[in-house]
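step: validate -> pass
step: tokenize input -> pass
step: predict -> running
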Amino acid sequence: MQEWGKPAPSSPPPPQSPGPSSGGSVQPPAPKVGFGAAFKEAASRKLRELRGQRWQGASPRARKAEAARRAASEVARRVERQTGVRPKESTIRRAARDDRTPRGADQARLDRQARIDAAGGVKKFAQKTGVSARKAASWRDKGKAMLLGGVQVITEVEGTLWVNGENYGRSVSAVLHVDPPASDDLYAAYAADDLEAVAEMLGPLITEQVEWTGDAERSYEVETINAIAIT
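step: predict -> pass
step: emit ->
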């Protein structure tokens, strides 16, 4: 008997997804941004926001330096709101280089802010995720759920299927259901165009929710996302 994921003379049929009703029990690990990457997202946002005749005519080096200065000031204010103490901008820069969260700061909250920075701000993030700006801000500041009912993901991916310790390249088309709080993390990564984080979260969901043929220990790792829609 031919089993999915094992070599065969002819190509096996693609795996079928059971649809939203049979998934949702697995909570893929929330992708971590880290302080260094969060600072870079803040700097990238500040760079995009540099406007006016002065900055239009400035050199790329001068623009990047100004964006980094503004990002250090902004991130220092964010840390102050959390801890009550405002660190020096030089401290923020050093912590970013070391990828080290400043003492007393909530890295998970800073990670959520980084997603919003990458999207271009609360308003744009809310538009991309389909929630109100108020819900987006509450998620950023308090970690409150944005999407209470979860989301459905329709995707076509390429990756590696591990079967009993052996690996095979496989393309998968699937309809997946993602429950909170992972649904918020997935949608936030998607809104921030962080497809690497999206792929990391899709792997465990595909492993559980796709109907594979035959009994075996399996896991799936997504390497390329060819198409994805989240509703």
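step: describe -> Strands lie at 151-163, 166-178, 218-230.
step: cleanup -> pass
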